[in-house]
Amino acid sequence: MDVIQLAQELMKFRTETGNQAEIQKCMEYIKSLFQTTKVKIDIFQKDNLAPVLFIRNCNEAVFDVLVLGHLDVVPAKDEMFHPFIQDGKLYGRGSLDMKSFAAVALNSMEYVLQHSLPIKFGIILSSDEEKGSKGTEAFLNANPNIFANIVLDNDVGGDITKIVTKCKNPVFVKIMAHGKEAHGSTPWDGIDANELLMKTLQNIRKDYPYYSLNGNIPEDKWIDTVHFAKICGGDVSNIIANYAEALCDFRLVETSSTADLRKNLDRCMEDGVSYQIVSESTPVVMDEQNPHILAYKKFAEDILGQSLDFEHIGGATDSREFAVKGSTVIMHSGSGEGMHANGEYVEVDSVKKIAEIQIRFLEKMALAK
User: Fold this and answer.
1) I want to staple 119 with a disulfide (CB 3.0 to 4.6 A). Which of 46, 64, 181, 234 is the partner?
2) 169-192: per-residue pLDDT in tens?
3) Helix boundaries (H) for the chain
């Protein structure tokens, strides 16, 4: 496969999370790539949840290597679904996050099939990663015996010279403030839910400081953080709001638990304010001395001609579901910028290098069997 051409073809599908028709078309296109092979491909879907594409070269549930990724993207203008290459960079929605690396995985599957590598190899591509991976959760619940000794996770885009060994635990919390309506001219007759919410958020900031490009930047970024993702309250200008709410995005390091967060939140709530944990996950923490990770790192360094560093990131990854089962998760991706932004791009050479590294690593796994 021409991995760059394939990446561009995948990027043309407007697979914004929730666009089921376009996601289905993209998955059917991928199935067509393997129609003359003996590969096994299923599109799993439960109820109205987002579908998951499952590709593998065996009938077994335990794999030597699985590649995890997703096909959905965040919303973008029409022109971003017309990818183009300029100055060695592939521009467009999904270039970095992460259709280029879905293409890498598909290229690896073709290589495994063509060269009859004696490894049990599979690919799982979800389609709602950008909004919580409920489809993936349903897929894994329906297939509880799926396991992989090694999981290759390319959904940590940004810098090919870094191998990620830690990801934080994302915890989303809804804070709800209840007040009492009154006319805006007589605020003493009411209780302003907006005020209660703002006071509560200020209390939270005492435990979780505000960080900004234009303000406070921590020297050590491996810390708990929160940003107030959405704040709303009130209906009209001349009525004291009787309800307000905020959605908070907490990112916790591996030494902080959800129980610790609850204790802090309990202390921060003003009278009339409560909270609900909407979703939580698990941090992914890998031993940097893991022999599989070190072997992969050596391959990558030889191919790139430079040393690689280990890195910790605040983002979440679907590979957490396998990390808790004991899989070795190798998190490595290509270089680029603008993830979720208008100028999203990936460096073309970095995609080709990741593809080469992945194939060389699969060859090593096959030789070891």
Assistant:
1) 64
2) 999 999 999 999 999 999 999 999
3) 3-11, 20-33, 100-114, 134-142, 193-207, 258-268, 291-304, 320-323, 348-368
